[in-house]
Amino acid sequence: MEITQQFNxxxxxxxxxxxxxxxxxxxxxxxxxxxxxxxxQQLPTQIRPKLVVAHVxxxxxxxxxVEAQFMSDYCQQHHLQLEKTKWPVAEQPYxxxxxxxxxxxxxxxxxxxxxxxxxxxxxxxxxxxxxxxVLMKLIRGGQLTQLQGILPEQPFAAGKLVRPLLPxxxxxxxxxxxxxxxxxxEDATNQNNDVLRNRIRHQVIPALxxxxxxxxxxxxxxxxxxxxxxxxxxQRTAELLQQVRLNDQIYSTPRWxxxxxxxxxxxxxxxxxxxxxxxxxxxxDEATQLLNNEQKxxxxxxxxxxxxxxxxxDQFSIKSELKVPQNHKPADKIxxxxxxxxxxxxxxxxxxxxxxxxxxxxxxxxALALRPDELPLQVRQAQPDDQIKLAGGGxxxxxxxxxxxxxxxxxxxxxxxxxxxxxxxLWLIGLQRTARELTETxxxxxxxxxx
Length: 451
Ligand SMILES: Nc1ncnc2c1ncn2[C@@H]1O[C@H](COP(=O)(O)OP(=O)(O)OP(=O)(O)O)[C@@H](O)[C@H]1O
Fold this sequence. Notes:
By secondary structure, this protein is α+β, with helices and mostly antiparallel strands. It contains 13 helices and 22 strands. The strands form five sheets. A six-stranded mixed beta sheet has the order 3-2-1-4-6-5, sandwiched between helices. Strands 7-8-11-10-9 form a five-stranded antiparallel beta sheet. Bound molecules: adenosine-5'-triphosphate. Residues 26-28, 32-33, 54-56, 58, 102, 105, 123-125, 129 line the site of adenosine-5'-triphosphate.
């Protein structure tokens, strides 16, 4: 019963919603969201809002239909309003299904909030989800802010998304579900250890809990401290940004130079973030060098999404610069512009996109760690004497690679390469990539057969 009391007092203290408000509860029919729904139903009447259940049938598993029917029956029995929808199979992509399903789900939740004038959406993320997320970020690398993990509360649609089960462990949730004799459905795909999150869930976290049973509590405490520290740092950065800003998108180089090294980097990072550009160490290093270089009063740095970081005497800014390739013949170099499909020879299209979570390189898809000065990339026909860097430090010619892959001579003319702005061959498409450290990938080159 302990969980009920703690949940009720959390709700009371946090003041996420009032009795008069409508709250959407996202329920998948899994144990976590069934417990969340039950706890919400059992809140004392003076703090219990009007509840609307939202359920998405993703049609990805054979069990999906049974779960959707269960939610209808449950809501009818408990006199709860239910919003449910199906994710049309025709809209489901071949790759990146997880991310597309999430996008569809949250769009639906936002629509439900609109329809019911609800200011709050609840999901059932819990303390184990939090630890998994933090460990995944540590493994994958990235920005410190990501180590805050899942936020207890964040703006969403016209209101906010709240995760009231974050303080509770999966074990507490399961114990409560058994005590209350709840019905729920297990997602069989959660057992698949090909997925990083599942390996962390089944192999890493149990080992860490064995080292110290307070592991989840420690993750909770670290993430809370980090959230508070990041909040303070953001406030300070916003003040500094104000000092450096001349007007809307233009900044003062001398004022930026007056800042400490740490402050300069924080301000640059904020400027990149505001421009919705990937914030990578190499971008920040190169922009810093460029601003610090007093020998060169004007300089430019190519960025993602056809944007340019430009220093012009005492000012700097990020500008848009669209370079659309014109009149290219198949064998010509074709410029790949980020976030735009470009037509390649032999019925192919290519697009450069910022790195996406969870995607894996394959023959249609290549993760890249690029310096800003390597953009734009170009695609052209492979030349037999083109060379690709090997991991041991040597090189291999394209001729050799094509022979090793047993590509028939008639097909060799169709082979394409991706080259950097410095003409380094990065990828013999579909066959071999250059040996390069991939700890901080910032782009992916995606290929597709033309429709
Ligand atoms: N099909 C669904 N219908 C309604 N709610 C869902 C559905 N799937 C997930 N949710 C909600 O989202 C929560 C988190 O689900 P899950 O852990 O499967 O997703 P995630 O990918 O880890 O997280 P998220 O998608 O929120 O980033 C669930 O506890 C539930 O509240």
